[in-house]
Amino acid sequence: MQHFKGKYSELMSHLGYDPSSPNSIYEFAKRLTGKSLSEIVDMSRVAENIANKGDLGNMVEKYFFGYEPNSSPLPDFPRAGVELKVTGVNRKKNGTYSAKERLVLTTINYMELANEEWEASSLMVKCRLMLLMFYLYERETTVFFRKFVLEPRLFEFPENDLKQIQLDWQKIKDIVVSGRAHELSEGDTYFLAACRKGSGGIKETLKSQPNSDIRVKGRAFSLKVKYVNKIIEEALVATSHSFRQDTPDRSPLDTTNSELQTHKGELRISNPELPIPKENVGAVPTNEFKFLYSQLGIEEATRLKFDPFLGMTEEELSNVLGLFKQGKNSKGFYRSIVLKVLGSKNDYAPELERAGIEIKTIRVNSNWKPYEAMSFPAFNYLEIINEKWEDSAFHEKIEQRFLFVIFRNGEDGLLRLEKVCYWNMPFIDREEARRVWEDTRRRVKVDARDLPKSSESHVAHVRPHARNSRDTNPTPQGTKLVKKGFWLNQSYIREMILNLDN
DNA sequence: GCATGATCATGC
DNA sequence: GCATGATCATGC
């Protein structure tokens, strides 16, 4: 040990930090805050052509931390158990930041995942503790000049989220084990997702999966964009604090005690069956959504929150929740019911937001037929013709997880909260949606007035989605045409909600 | 009653 | 002013 120590301190002084100490690495990483690599490293040492687009993560490893980038299954700093993640943020109009993309954690090895257990999984081995560094993404700025605009974070999966993250991991594993790795979708899960690895396009090597001969595209475990946004909000708080005093703040994501304790005295138990750890009784309101999901996961928490309201008529819900329709045509009324039930204030459900969940309220007749098709944002005729399916907005939507809240008209003519469930589009229908999208793209080039109708596909069609007929977009034919978007067919929605189990 | 076109309500 | 979720209107 003595012998080693000498060499070790030499290494430390050479690197400028102690590679066996998370704190030392973190403190060292802070030196980049507010700066770009070009301001810190001796640029004469840099071998790469700085005009080239490169991977900033690799450059940080090589020139800032002083080790060669590798693809080891261990964390980047194995002695400290710290995995380095360098990730881009966009500046929003209001001066804050949002994630440029999902945070890719580690590649999924389908064959190995099938034999893994959570605690010893390759994901946990590599990413249990991560050092997150955020740079401002600007298209024109080469990587060496991009500034690290936020304080770095030493990040562990927050205690409140751990349950759901583990459930997500298990769900992905289950799909892989059942020989359906090719069907994986980001919408299968909530916080942790199996994202496509690589941008696609060029021929990529397909991988084998257990229990199926179908070769699969590469995927990686990732944290969803919306989830990363919350981490960034947290980093932003830390950054603004550090300008005043140099003490890192408590994580706003970790609300274990701070926030919940302010609710003391409001203890209400909506479901007596609910397992509640003894030490928590009395300390937290047990029917808070965020408490429920930290214990049970998002799906079960949602079920418990909605259970007491199922079967209530519109009027009963209105009275119980203290919500009143503004006018007869108040289109957000049913949505506000959903948010109120979930316990949100300000029409905002942070837990669902972070999971990238899209809430859809659906009114159906007594025969479960939706009164309306389901709309998605309008697309731009000139843009869609140059897009790839994988990068399209509709694809993004289709991959999401939805919360369907179904209001059904009874024989008595009263609308009741009938069913609440999570849904994401099955693989085979995503293929059909893709076909409709490709067909749309092709036909826009020919004549943007003639696009796929609902009679042409059982899944999706194209319809106007505009303020009025004067609300137009330019077409490749040089004309102006009313804005249109993709819609899911009524009959398709009916099929889906009838097949749901809960 | 369905398919399709047209528009509304809300929040930022 | 616009994006987005949601609903109305009309012709067959």
Major pleated sheet: 4 strands, mixed
Q: First CA to last CA: what distance?
A: 60 Å
Spans of at least 5 consecutive residues with low confidence: 244-282
Helix content: 25-40%
What fraction of residues sit in β-strands?
Answer: 15-25%
Instruction: Find the structural class using helix and strand composition.
Output: alpha+beta
| Average pLDDT | 86
Rg measurement, Å: 25 Å
Q: What is the number of beta strands?
A: 17
The shape, in one word, is: globular
Spatial order of the strands in the main sheet? 2-1-4-5
| Helix count from the secondary structure assignment | 18
Features:
globular; DNA-binding; 17 strands; 34% helix; four-stranded mixed beta sheet; alpha+beta; three-stranded antiparallel beta sheet; 502 residues
